[in-house]
Give the backbone structure.
Amino acid sequence: MTYLDNGATSMNKPQAVLDAVRCALENCANPGRGGHTAAMTAARTVLRCRERAAQLFGCKPEQVVFTANCTQGLNMAIRTLVKPGDKVAVSGFEHNAVVRPLYALGAKTVVAGRKLFDPVDTLERFEDALRRGAKAAVFTHVSNVFGYILPVEELAALCRQYRVPFVLDAAQSAGMLPVDMEKLGADFIAMPGHKGLLGPQGTGLLLCADRLEPLLFGGTGSDSKNPGMPDYLPERGEAGTLNVPGIAGLSAGITYVQRVGIHKIFEKQQRQARRCASALERLGFRVFSGREQGGTVSFVPDRDCEEAAELLAQRGVAVRAGLHCAPLAHESAGTLETGTVRVSFGHDAAPWQTGNLLLALETLPKR
């Protein structure tokens, strides 16, 4: 299979990730719930992952809260910063993991910046929203639909200038682009473990500057006499048993990313995305590409998107079609009615993958 759906989850995990999961299943008990060997092995496994994540993302280990996915982290962050009725600035390319929690809270969402691959428009519209009294801001680092890399350093600087707390959604950038919590001055950064960090599904990280309102309540293995959740990190955000096998795999994935180098991984992805976009344009498709783009390309085929993706799957090429859980992004790009076919490269991006996609497209029956 030619796997080009890394925007949904990474495949072809490094062998070290698989080995780490198995080792944890065989040797780890419940961290913080005992002083015996298996519990202590689990505790060391969890701490090692926190330390590696902190090193990669410019924060302290205790600021790293483990989550089940990026969506859970975003919910926790948004519920900490946003109250019902608050005005919240978001970009025009947000995932439903941002839009739906804000809607559920009754926040007044201000969509700031609708133009694809146009950082000037994004910054101007965001500053206008902040100037007009936004209480918080949430923005993605990279659009999961179009690969647009937003100017997050400048957006962060604007938030600091207007003293507006903000959340960065690093779902499509963690492990592929530099993300530094201290430099950005973010209140929260949410990310999945199973995409660019190459860990198992069911893992995620929420980086917290200081305060955090829990989403779940329960045992933490500490401060057990307290009827409320501990008031310190990371325990305040980690009720119940942690996914230790998943965390072990995530730790191995982070190590792999650090060893190979984020810049090298990104360069491989971007190189193939640009090659792919150019070739798709030559085939006559409507392609969304621009200078500020990562390893994801969307295009509109000459038929229904879902049908095109199904035909590609029959030819051994895995892509994603539709609205990609991000109708706001499609609304901004004018593809809400049609959707797109999304091609998203991973850490193993290579010319043969692009070649197989193009070959498969050329063999599709004519319309």
